[in-house]
Every structure is written in structure tokens, then in C-alpha cells.
């Protein structure tokens, strides 16, 4: 089924992006450790190194948002949800995607675009004097995050629809295969 194939392809893409950027967590720890050692051990600092912590942190979290949604790493209060049937959970998730996630992504894209475009137009420089001169790249993470989350929301919605239609036993990624 084409719809299921689309969902699987989007899931694989989110997983690939997430597994790629997860390595930034180790880099983030190492750079932050170096900043602390330089500051407190040698009474010096490098503004570009300090700003790189911001860039790495933003890149990690903005680009891993879809991976988090795919693997259900987001916060969920499931006092009632856990006991519901798979189709009912899928219907609730589908409603949440339609009412909250997709509008949020579209609103984010719509509101950030002029802001990001202006930053690219002027090739916005460093946050602080002597810092990393690519703030327009940092700001580009905002629409990238919205697109990645939107794509994963579509994949999740596909799984929900398939579950509601009885073509999947569960709408959660990796739990069951189509036709189960």
C-alpha cells in the first residue's frame, strides 16, 4: 500500500537524521568541558568556542525533534491513554496531530520565514563580537525543525489512519508491521 510505504519512508528519514545528529551530544559535552577548563583552569576563554556550544545545542535539539516524536520520547501523560484500545489511541493521536502538531509546524514556518530570510539576505554575523559569523545558519534551524516535525507528523498520521482502518494492529512506530 502506497500510504504505508510513504509512512515507512518518512519514519526512516526521521530515524536517519536523528541517529546522525545524536553524535552532537558527545561533541556538546566535550566543547562545554573545554570551555569550563579554559575559563577556570587557565583564566581565559574563546568566544567562538562558547558560541559553538549554542550552535551545537540548537542543531542537536532542533534536528532531533522528529526522531524524538518517532521514538515517543516526548512527554505524555497517559493515565487514560495507556488503557485504551489501539484504534482509540490512534484516533486521539491523529486528532492531536491535526489540531496541534501540523498547525504548529505551519505557523512556525509562516512566522519564521521573514526572520530567517532577512538573516540570510544580510548574512547576519556573530552573536557577540569575535564570535561565529554564521548566525543565519543558526536561524535556518527553525524552519528545518518545523519541516522535519511536519514530515514526522505526517508519518505518524499515516500509521494512525492505518490503525483506525484495521490495517495495522498499533499505530506506534516499530511496534507492529502492516497487515498485523
Question: Please, could you describe this protein's structure?
Answer:
It is a single chain. The chain has 180 residues and is an all-alpha fold. The protein has one domain. The protein has seven helices and no strands. It is elongated. The two termini are 14 Å apart. Residues 176-180 have low confidence and may be disordered.
Mean pLDDT score: 92
SS-based class: mainly alpha
**Regions with pLDDT < 50 over 5+ consecutive residues?**
176-180
Count of individual beta strands: 0
Q: Please, how many domains?
A: 1
First-residue to last-residue Cα separation? 14 Å
How would you characterize the largest beta sheet?
A: none
Give a topology summary.
Elements: H1 2-21, H2 24-42, H3 47-63, H4 65-70, H5 86-121, H6 135-139, H7 141-164
Helix pairs in contact: 1-7, 2-3, 3-7, 5-7
Give descriptors for this structure.
180 residues, mainly alpha, 71% helix
Gist?
With 180 residues, the protein is an all-alpha fold. It has helices at 2-21, 24-42, 47-63, 65-70, 86-121, 135-139, 141-164.
